[in-house]
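Holo prediction. Input below; ligand is zinc ion.
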Amino acid sequence: MKKAIKTLRTLLTENNPECAEAKAKEAKATKEKAPKLILLSCPQSMRLLEVRKEDIYSVESFGATVMTNEATLDYAVRRLNLPLLCIMGHEGCEALRRAVKVEQATDEEKVLYEHIAAAFSGKAKKEPQRTLDHIDTEVAAALARYGDLVKTGKLTVVGLYCDEKGRLFLSNYNGLKGKDTLAYSLPEVESFFFMA
Ligand SMILES: [Zn+2]
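Structure of the complex:
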């Protein structure tokens, strides 16, 4: 318990009294800026990523699923009108591993794992295919939910793959996938960013 209190104290210290003025200035500037994109990710992988916090409407949820995050995403997509929804999966995601084989889980976890496992139809696929299939399923779910906005060009939904080194690749663009298709559809993006 002592360790938890120490961690809590550090969090409070780093965000409070001494640096109050600078912190308040920074917070005001950030609040005035609208985020540029929505990033749905797993808490495990967010720790690996370099991001400008002020640009991101961050939705961190174990396994990065649309399911269980509908209200949070609806608000960002339909009320804030953010034009880009990124769904990020990552190498070695514990949620995907547990979806294949789990011994102990709460009822809520089981619902999540069943949803995730449906993407690889019960088969224990290897990496990175397992993660890529999961990302595709979640992009498809987002396209189904926000298809009206995607069709009119108001929203773009993409799938991102984050490897263990924290490197980011594009694996799905509005439902399009495969290196050649992505290169053809996005000539302005360098091809080494695409996941095969
Ligand atoms: Zn994960």
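The first strand starts at residue 37 and ends at 41. That is the main takeaway for now.
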